[in-house]
Amino acid sequence: MRKRNKLVLVAALLAATVSVFADDLIFRGTISGEMLDFKGLNETETDAVKKFKQTGVNPYNGNAEVIKKGESLFSTACSGCHGHLAEGKLGPALSDDYWTYPKNATDKGLFETIFGGAEGMMGPQRGRLTQDEMLQIMSWVRSIYQGDPDKAKWLNN
Q: CATH classification of 24-155, choosing from 3.30.9.10, 1.10.760.10, 1.10.10.10, 2.30.30.110?
């Protein structure tokens, strides 16, 4: 009887472990630390978004066509606060190696900040931009980086 209970327990632990590794990453708000809510969005997740949610790495980084789209989106959605070249204005600069929130040095962290918002005037972009548009903007921001390459965690993934 004991052997059977041990086998059942091992099987349950193995199933739970496989389940955890098969699921997407957990995304948390930069300020609250609470899990971000992706339910109820009026959008279809693109393949890039699905891949990003599994890896935490933006598949658009380095894609010249998407970077150009990201620049256009940044101009309309972000430049009012962050400046036309992400040099900083009301909001912080985004092209150097100083991050107000250190987690923004990773693609996952930057996405969490954009999607869920930050302190001050940076409200959540959930529902204002699609997740795919956020990834496009992030690819442009990463492409104009002028800081220390060793601090660019997205380059070292």
A: 1.10.760.10
